[in-house]
Structures are given as C-alpha cells and as structure tokens.
Design brief:
Elements (H helix, E strand, L loop, with lengths): L4 H8 L11 E4 L2 E4 L8 H6 L28 E4 L2 E2 L10 H5 L4 E2 L2 H15 L3 E4 L8 H14 L4 E6 L1 H6 L3 H7 L1 E9 L3 H7 L8 H10 L3 E8 L6 H12 L5 E6 L7 H9 L26 H12 L5 H11 L3 H20 L1
Parallel strand pairs: 3-6, 6-7, 7-8, 8-9, 9-10
Antiparallel strand pairs: 1-2, 4-5
Helix pairs in contact: 4-5, 5-7, 10-12
Length: 349
C-alpha cells in the first residue's frame, strides 16, 4: 500500500476513507482497497521532523552482539536513511510496500538525526534499517565523510546484499565513521535455491566479499534461512560447512516464513505447503519456528540450527574474534557478555 505518512495525516484530519490513498478498510463486510500512495521524495523525507519522534527506553531494545558495545551499556536506536530495495527476493515484502525504487534522504539530514540521537539521547549504537545500505556508494561515502567531519562518536551496523557489497569500494571510510558490522543476506549456500529465491548473486561471490569486509576491521554478520520446500538434509550439511569457513562475527539462523504479498506466499498457497496449524497464524510467523512442509524433519532442522549456533563456542570462532577485536576494551567486554549469554541459553536448551 506504500508509505503511511500522508494516509495517516489524512485519516487523522477527518478525510473520508474512500478518498485516502494507500489504505484498505472494511465497509459493509467487504474489504475495500484504495489506490496506493505516491512515493515520498527526498524533499518529503527530509521534511519529516525526527526531533518530534519519541525516543525512550533504549534498554528495551539493547541486544547481545558479540562485538562493539556491551549489552549492559548499550543505548540503541534504529535509523532509516533510504526506503525501498532494487532486489526482488521471493520471500521479502519490501517490493509490495515500496516498489523496487529507492528514495534517499540527503546525507546531511541522515547525519543530523544521528547527531541528534547522540547528543540528546546518548545513543551509542545505531542500526541502519535500510534494505540495502551499500547499493549507492556515493551516498554511503557522503554519510561516512559527514560523520567523520562532525566528530560524531557512534558505532552502527548496516545490511547489504552480497552483490552491492561486492561493488562497494570504500570500506575504510565506513570503518572510520563508526561502522562496526555489515550484515549480508547469505540465506543459503545452494545456488539452485538462491536462484529460486530470486537472490541476485552467485555463491562464489560471498567469500571474497566477506574477507574484504573483515580485512578493514569491520565485523561480518550473516542472515541464514532454513526450511526451504526443496531443501534436503544434504543441503543443510553443505550450508554448515560453508558457513563454518566464513569469517562471521554474528549469524542469524532463521526459518523461511512466507508473508502475504510475496511470491513465496503465493507459491506456498498454491502448493499447500503450510504445516497444519501455521496458515495465516500470525503468532507463529516469527521466523523462529518452522511453518512449511519440507523433506527435512523438524527435529533434524532444529538440530541443524543448533549446530550452527554452536559455532559461536568453537575455538576457531574465539580466536578469530580475539584477533578482530584486538585491544578495543568495549568490544572485549561485549564479546565476554555475549559468550556468557550464548553458553547460558544453549545449556537451557
């Protein structure tokens, strides 16, 4: 349906629902869908007054990250510098919301918000929730340069596609500006499954990109998904050995989850691939529970996920992290807290 700012303003102003673009509503028992809103421009995005946003209770959003800022000291905030994504992944609803066109805030406006978060709210760790932060190298470079010029002290992490990361060239500027982690959408090490997902990269691209990121002292994060309809136990084993040899600091193993409006959802509906109690059961659509039928049993799937999580406890991982963290006292403390958290929770399970 598109961006909600105009629609929300019109609804709160009392405009008749039939005239508000970008919404769906029920009337006389029927669902009525209005035309989508026009996308906000750069001028529109910059005009949104971020100083009016209520920032509070940062400790509720702190997370255990194996580097950068200790959980016990983290003041965390999200920031969005761009809207939209050029990729066309079958599982992602981004295209349904934004289309495939990206609109950007100006670098100055983005850094203004970062500076506001740091000076007014003591934020020390931020997440850029942009779908693909590295797709526009000149824009990224301008943000990094402006952070450095103003002397803003903050650490942050971003998400990027493997292909965009492979084209990006100035990781050193990102590192200097405070970029602590770049998280890539690996998803799987199986090229056939990657192609079916609409992922726009070849698996042989990932290792050079990962090594390049880490060589600049930036931590590598990975998103990894399981439970594809066509996935076999052999695929899971191949994924494990591939991931084991990547220099990641953080990995998020999850179960692929079809959301309405995506091609994956349509495929699952057509083929009847839902597990019995999962179809349109939003309480289980968290990516932390298997919801699809596959060739792999749930027990085998959960075992495969725990095996990947246990890589955090391996000697190779510990040595790699110590080398990457070096003498950074904050990162050392964050790593120790993270290891304690992982050991405690794996013991519970």
């Amino acid at each position: 349906m598109g961006e909600g700012e105009r629609a929300l303003f019109e609804l709160m102003s009392g405009v008749d629902t039939a005239s508000v673009n970008g919404i769906a509503y029920k009337k006389n028992g029927k669902i009525i869908t209005n035309p989508p809103n026009n996308r906000l421009s750069t001028v529109d995005l910059d005009a949104i007054d971020f100083t009016k946003i209520h920032y509070k209770n940062y400790e509720r959003f702190a997370m255990h990250i194996p580097h950068s800022i200790p959980y016990s000291e983290m003041h965390f905030a999200n920031i969005v510098g761009s809207r939209g994504c050029w990729n066309d992944c079958s599982f992602c609803p981004s295209k349904t919301i934004w289309g495939r066109r990206i609109t950007y805030r100006t670098p100055k406006n983005v850094v203004d918000e970062l500076e506001f978060l740091v000076t007014k709210h003591n934020v020390n760790y931020a997440f850029f929730a942009d779908d693909d932060f590295l797709v526009n190298g000149a824009w990224d470079q301008s943000i990094a340069t402006e952070i450095i010029r103003r002397g803003i002290h903050i650490r942050y992490y971003v998400m990027a596609s493997v292909r965009s990361a492979s084209r990006f060239s100035n990781y050193e500027a990102l590192k200097t500006s405070g970029c602590a982690e770049i998280t890539l959408g690996l998803e799987t090490a199986n090229q056939t499954i990657l192609n079916n997902l609409g992922k726009n990269y070849e698996i042989q691209m990932i290792t050079p990109v990962a090594n390049e990121i880490v060589s600049h002292g930036i931590h590598l994060g990975l998103y990894y998904m399981m439970r594809y309809p066509e996935q076999t136990i052999e695929d899971l084993e191949e994924d494990y050995y591939f991931i084991e040899n990547l220099p990641f600091s953080r990995i998020r193993p999850s179960f692929i989850t079809p959301y309405p409006g995506t091609r994956l959802y349509q495929e699952v509906e057509q083929k009847g691939l839902w597990l019995d109690d999962c179809r349109n059961n939003w309480q289980v659509m968290t990516c932390d529970r298997p919801v699809l039928k596959t060739h792999v049993s749930i027990d085998d799937l959960l075992e495969a996920r725990e095996k990947i999580i246990r890589l955090y406890l391996s000697e190779n991982y510990h040595t790699r992290m110590c080398n990457l963290i070096g003498n950074d006292a904050l990162s050392q403390k964050a790593f120790l807290e993270f290891q304690t958290y992982i050991r405690k929770n794996l013991t519970k399970n």
